[in-house]
Structures are given as structure tokens and as C-alpha cells.
Amino acid sequence: MGLAHTIVGIVGNVISFGLFLSPVPTFYQIYKRKAVEEFQPYPYLCTVMNCIIWMFYGLPVVKKDNILVLTINSVGLVIELLYLTVYVVYANDRKKRLLVGSILLCEAASTVVIVLVALFPLYTHRTVFVGIIADVFNIIMYAAPLAIWRKVIQTRSVEYMPFWLSLAGFCNGVCWTVYGLLQFDIFILVSNGLGALFGFVQLALYAFYFFNGNPKSKDQVKKPAQLQLSHLPSPA
Fold it and tell me: What is the pTM for the complete model shown?
């Protein structure tokens, strides 16, 4: 069981790493154009906080035998901060830079508060305390594509729902759900179980409108989807 748990965790790390890299085309476009244009930093700022909380949850002081949760979220945090660095460099509007800096500062302050509360007043319930917070952020990340679902239904087109990214998100949820089951970690299980469910519904929606929706969607789906990547959830 321990070996299976490790193998599934490694596979989950690989899939999650791929998802963390999915916005690379978006930031390549920003680099080429030397401007962020209409791209928003919020998905990446949310992912930063998500990674920080799961990194804390993965520490032995909070939850033992969760090193693979710690590793992938540490890597993810570095990647997301690199994305935000590129965003700040090419944000021509000073207000956008101040916004990113202010939110990161608030996230840092929130992290300090969470860590202090978990380590001292709630030290006997730190796993539950941190796990609940981590689950909240994870569910928010997985639920992010709900706006895209609405767009797909309204337009009857899968143009705004990249298939491979949707499939990877589903596989990510399934893999971490199995990981949570093997060691029965309720917090990894709940949020990623919901993520797998959201992913399944998203793929079902994609299949339905690909075959029964706007005829143009079959051609549109072949186009690069850089613009949509910034609005999709990152792994937890």
C-alpha cells in the first residue's frame, strides 16, 4: 500500500507539473507583445496562496508522510511567482503592479497568521485547521472553470474549453483522489474528489457540444487556446 501510495503521488506530481506549465503560451504572448493587455493576474495570485497552504499542509509538523504534496506545491509556487514576475515587468499600468504587490503582501501576512494560529493556539488540531483552509482554496481552484461552462452552453461551442487541459485537470483530480484514498487523507480526498467530479462534468459537456453544438467549434478547437489558459484552475 505504501508503494502504491508513492507511485500514485509521483504520477500526480507529473500531471500537476504539466498543469502548472499550461499558462506558458499565455506568458510567451505577453513577452512577445511586451504588454499584459487584458490578461488578469488573479488566477495566478490565487494559485500562489493555494500552493502556500498545501505546502504547509505537506510539512511533517502538520501532516506526516505528505512529502509529495510538499514537493509539487513548492515547485508550483516558484512557477506561479515567475509568471507574476513576468506580469509585473510587462504591466504598463502602475496600478496593476501595485495591485499584484498589495495582494502578495496580504497573502504573506495571511500565511503568517495561519501558521502562528496552527502552531500555537490550535496546535492539537493543526491538521484539521490547515486541512480545511487548504480544501477551501482547492475547491475554489477546481470550480474556476464554471464560468467557462456557462460560456460553452451559451455559445454551444467548445472554443473556450481546451480539451487537453480539461482532460489533464480531470486526471489530476482522479490521481490525487486515489492518493487520498490510499492513505485515507480526508482533506486531499474531499477537494480532489470534487475536482474529479467537476472535471468529469466538464469533459461530458465538451463531448456533448463538440458533437451537437455549433458546427464551427470542431474547427475552432484546433486553434491555440492561450487566452483561455489564464482562466483555468491550477492543481493543488
Answer: 0.82
